[in-house]
Design a protein that fits this description.
By secondary structure, the chain is α+β, with helices and mostly antiparallel strands. It contains four helices and six strands, in the order H-H-H-H-E-E-E-E-E-E.
Length: 174
């Protein structure tokens, strides 16, 4: 005699087997109560309305967040000329130490405010060139630098989250 193994059947599989063996007439024969149909229709409508409201709430919150982010980016963009002027002032030679110290303190405070807003300043000489973040305005042949390495920075770049507020203007080594 052949040794037959009994297959373990889950309850779900047992129901499926019974449904497959049940004649079509029996499957279609269900009790149709008009109140139950009305209840099911109202229940479905309620669930759809709740889902629509939830989607509306999420979409509105996302739009509000984007609007706030765009407003913040616009405000940061308006501050960038001040940053550039302070950077130029710091790079100018001066004999007046009090003046230089005042400009340094102002620049430090502006950078602290920008960092507090979540702004990232990028674009340093020696970094690798990324066309998604840098704007190459010049190329140079420099054997000491690798290929696609930033040789000089003309203007720093600013990034707020994933949004580039201003691309860094750079010179790239080939």
């Amino acid at each position: 005699m052949a040794n037959k193994e009994k297959k373990q059947v889950t309850p779900e599989e047992a129901v499926e087997e019974v449904l497959e063996e049940t004649p079509e007439e029996v499957k279609e024969e269900t009790v149709t109560d008009p109140w139950e149909e009305k209840y099911n229709a109202e229940h479905d409508a309620h669930l759809r309305l709740a889902a629509d409201y939830d989607n509306f709430r999420k979409r509105t919150a996302k739009e509000k967040e984007q609007t706030y982010g765009n407003g913040k980016a616009d405000a940061v963009e308006k501050l960038l000329p001040v940053y550039d002027n302070l950077e130029r002032a710091l790079n100018q030679p001066t004999e007046d130490l009090a003046y230089k110290k005042g400009v340094e303190l102002t620049m430090t405070e502006l950078v602290k405010i920008l960092n507090g807003l979540g702004v990232e300043i990028f674009g340093e000489a020696g970094e690798s060139f990324d066309p998604n973040m840098h704007n190459a305005v010049m190329h140079t042949e420099d054997e000491t630098l690798g290929e696609n390495v930033i040789a000089q920075v003309f203007q720093k770049g600013f990034k707020l989250g994933e949004k580039i507020v201003r691309f860094a203007m750079v010179q790239v080594a080939n």
